[in-house]
Give the backbone structure.
Amino acid sequence: MAADAVMPVSVVLERRAAESLWTDYVWRPVGVLTAAGNDERGRLLAEGEGWTHYHGGTLDIELFRGEAEGYLTNLSHVPPKVYVVLRRNEDLEEADEGVLEFEPFLVTVCPYEAMGYSEGSEVVEGVPMPPEIVVWLRDFVARHYVETPFVKRKNKRHRDDYGGKAPHIARERGIS
């Protein structure tokens, strides 16, 4: 299905030294940049004591009319988030230096879609939504969100051949 609106974003990943016996580093997304370029994936952006930021890649945020309710829910949060789904790089060798251990697989602004990925082995994190994306998303929701009214369904009375007093099995056995 083709998206109704698309915006490319660059994902910024952080590698932080872990305080763990089982792993050396923890990977997580820390931001998205709307001035997405075709920068080389894995390019060093900044570093400090115990942490390093890398360009994780450029992906598209895709908007669909049918998910407008999820976008509205996200906009009601303070602050709204862009959800980034990371997957472990299966091609990674122990000796590969400069290769990202985790890579962005998906960016979305629908919290329901992100929640679906949180049950697997992927890393799902929400990062603050840049103001340009907030404006773009509000405009999309204003144009495409249609509120569906709640309709309570009416219960139907149960009727059976015996007047509805005793269960069918009980009547057959003469227990009623």
Q: What stands out?
A: The chain has a mean pLDDT of 85.
